[in-house]
């Protein structure tokens, strides 16, 4: 399977199912089942399933990853911290993709990108171990030239640009500035031959300008889809997000 679309063609939707597990864990029940969510998301148009096995297992558990991996028809993008425990686990599971993310136990969600510059040797070692198992490695980084440069130098074939600052911006000037920063980051990644993805904090409105950036290959979106699904249903929420992304990519404004 070729993962690289020519720039400007279709755009992949990675559905992050973390918060299906959040709802399940709220009562310690077996429902809603993240495996069922993953399979239904694929049927509704998801191109991949993303899940973040956090060190504190606040939502996705090891058993979820092990149960989901053999059942997917698309591909698994496992998000994990750069720790030996997580790298060893990922090598055992062998998802198609691993996205290395920073983690601080007390954080509510991922706050910033991985500091590849600072942790270069640890990231390099992790990439070699994962790539040795045939796993494609993505680095979840800020749209920062130095981080993108380091990501290319350290041997990562993929980067995922953190769109959190763009998503949290609350005035038009700041939103425009963050969008331009992401566009510059995309161009910097493409210049270095990297596959460029993006994600974090994207929802049904703010996703459109990001999906319209032709060189972006994939968006990973979770919290907003789970939230919307509470009102419209899971499959509809996934289908709607994919449709908005494709329309944005094709330059079709909503309502046409
Ligand atoms: C890396 C990223 O931006 C998301 O996958 C984020 O890590 C989700 O973590 P939570 O689902 O715990 O907010
Ligand atoms: N890497 C981003 C991701 O997987 C989903 O982030 P969010 O949409 O839950 O903020």
UniProtKB/TrEMBL annotation:
Residues binding 3-amino-2-oxopropyl phosphate, per UniProt: 16, 27, 201, 222-223
Associated pathway: Cofactor biosynthesis; pyridoxine 5'-phosphate biosynthesis; pyridoxine 5'-phosphate from D-erythrose 4-phosphate: step 5/5
Gene Ontology molecular functions: pyridoxine 5'-phosphate synthase activity
A Pfam family assignment: PdxJ
InterPro entries: Aldolase_TIM, PyrdxlP_synth_PdxJ, Pyridoxine-5'_phos_synth
Protein EC: 2.6.99.2
Keyword Transferase: yes
Residues the record lists as binding 1-deoxy-D-xylulose 5-phosphate: 18-19, 54, 59, 109
Residues at the site labelled Transition state stabilizer: 160
Transmembrane segments: none
Catalytic activity: 3-amino-2-oxopropyl phosphate + 1-deoxy-D-xylulose 5-phosphate = pyridoxine 5'-phosphate + phosphate + 2 H2O + H(+)
Locations listed in the record: Cytoplasm
Active site residues of this protein: 52, 79, 200
Keywords, ordered alphabetically: Cytoplasm, Pyridoxine biosynthesis, Transferase
CDD domains recorded: PNPsynthase
Enzyme class: transferase
Family as reported in the entry's similarity comment: Belongs to the PNP synthase family.
NCBIfam families linked to this entry: pdxJ, PRK05265.1-1, PRK05265.1-2, PRK05265.1-3, PRK05265.1-5
Function: Catalyzes the complicated ring closure reaction between the two acyclic compounds 1-deoxy-D-xylulose-5-phosphate (DXP) and 3-amino-2-oxopropyl phosphate (1-amino-acetone-3-phosphate or AAP) to form pyridoxine 5'-phosphate (PNP) and inorganic phosphate.
Subunit text: Homooctamer; tetramer of dimers.
Protein name: Pyridoxine 5'-phosphate synthase
Lineage per the UniProt record: Bacteria, Pseudomonadati, Pseudomonadota, Betaproteobacteria, Burkholderiales
């Amino acid at each position: 399977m070729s993962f690289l679309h020519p720039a400007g063609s279709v755009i992949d939707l990675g559905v992050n199912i973390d918060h299906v597990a959040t709802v399940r864990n709220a009562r310690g029940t077996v429902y809603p089942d993240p495996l069922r969510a993953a399979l239904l998301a694929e049927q509704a148009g998801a191109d991949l399933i993303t899940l973040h096995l956090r060190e504190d297992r606040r939502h996705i558990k090891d058993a979820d990853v092990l149960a989901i991996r053999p059942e997917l028809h698309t591909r698994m993008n496992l998000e994990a911290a750069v720790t030996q425990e997580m790298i060893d686990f990922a090598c055992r599971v062998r998802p198609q993709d691993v996205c290395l993310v920073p983690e601080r136990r007390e954080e509510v969600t991922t706050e910033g990108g991985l500091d590849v510059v600072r942790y270069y040797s640890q990231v390099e070692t992790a990439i070699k171990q994962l790539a040795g198992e045939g796993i494609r490695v993505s680095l979840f980084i800020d749209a920062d030239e130095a981080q993108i440069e380091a990501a290319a130098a350290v041997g990562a074939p993929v980067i995922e640009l953190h769109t959190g600052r763009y998503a949290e911006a609350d005035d038009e000037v700041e939103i425009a500035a963050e969008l331009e920063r992401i566009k510059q980051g995309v161009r910097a990644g493409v210049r270095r031959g990297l596959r460029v993805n993006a994600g974090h904090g994207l929802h049904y409105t703010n996703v459109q300008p990001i999906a319209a950036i032709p060189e972006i290959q994939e968006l990973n979106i979770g919290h907003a889809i789970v939230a919307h699904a509470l009102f419209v249903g899971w499959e509809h929420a996934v289908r709607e997000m994919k449709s908005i992304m494709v329309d944005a990519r094709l330059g079709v404004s909503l309502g046409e």
